[in-house]
Design goal:
By secondary structure, the protein is α/β, with parallel strands linked by helices. The chain has two domains: 111 residues, Rossmann fold, CATH 3.40.50; 106 residues, 3-Layer(aba) Sandwich (Rossmann fold), CATH 3.40.50.1860. The protein is built from nine helices and seven strands; from the N terminus they run βαβαβααβααβααββα. The strands form two sheets. Strands 5-4-6-7 form a four-stranded parallel β-sheet, with helices on one face. β1, α1 and β2 form a beta-alpha-beta unit. α2 crosses α3 and α4 packs across α9. The N and C termini lie close together (7 Å). Keywords: Isomerase. Belongs to the aspartate/glutamate racemases family. InterPro entries: Asp/Glu/hydantoin_racemase, Asp/Glu_race, Asp_race. Pfam families: Asp_Glu_race (PF01177). This is Aspartate/glutamate racemase family protein.
Length: 230
């Protein structure tokens, strides 16, 4: 059984969420049937901002955190932060163990799950930096999915709600404006909601919508379990 390495801390609540989803979804009857998991919850990694300068880039901290996980005994690494995947290739090239992409696994799972669906319109909820970097737009470019991107006013609501979630402030009131945005897209015929910031799935239980909500953290957890149990 392989040891999972989690490059976490971006943010801590999201890291806990991934860990919990791995444990809950592992088909184990006793402690010894769970995979080993090494978590480096490193909240000192600088903000993940697109077009950063070398001085304020999180890259060196991301690489160092990955190296620690490798040296500590992880057989492969996953990272529950979408925006940090801007530097995915550089991190991957700095270590000798596999580093699996949250972006790639999300896209792969969605293509498998919804390949026969007639309505492939998906609302992309992510940080402004994830959207600006076009991580998901590029990943879906050769598919028949249609990604809907919030406008500038809506994106401000998305980002502010994510910031509230990082503070532990998730409740019906804190997500009210975002819930209104979501349902405005549903009324336009959008059937899928992609929670592509790891704080977004933490809000799912507070959303009131008929959209199918896609949790990339859960998809990553299930992928990691399969890799560990191979």
């Amino acid at each position: 059984m392989k040891t999972i390495g989690i490059l976490g801390g971006m943010g801590p609540f999201a890291t806990v969420d991934l860990f919990q989803k791995i444990v809950i979804n592992t088909p184990a009857c006793i402690d010894q049937e769970h995979p080993k998991i090494i978590i480096y919850n490193n909240p000192t990694i600088p903000p993940r901002i697109f077009h950063t300068t070398e001085e304020n880039s999180p890259l060196s901290d991301l690489i160092q955190t990955a190296i620690v996980l490798e040296q500590t005994g992880a057989d492969f690494i996953i990272m529950p932060c979408h925006t940090a995947h801007i530097w995915y290739e550089q991190i991957k090239n700095a270590i000798s163990i596999p580093f699996y992409s949250l972006i790639d696994e999300t896209v792969k799972a969605m293509k498998e799950e919804y390949h026969s669906s007639k309505n492939k319109k998906a609302l992309l909820l992510a940080t402004s930096h994830t959207i600006s970097s076009k991580l998901y737009q590029n990943a879906f470019s050769n598919s028949d999915f249609e990604l809907l991107i919030p406008n500038r006013r809506e994106q401000i609501i998305v980002d502010s709600t994510i910031k509230a979630a990082k503070k532990g402030m998730i409740n019906t009131h804190s997500v009210a404006e975002l819930n209104f945005v979501i349902n405005s897209y549903y009324n336009q015929g959008v059937s899928l909601l992609m929670g592509c910031c790891t704080e977004i799935p933490l809000m799912f239980s507070y959303f009131t919508t008929e959209m199918k909500m896609i949790d990339p953290t859960l998809l990553l957890a299930k992928f990691a379990i399969n890799q560990a149990l191979e």
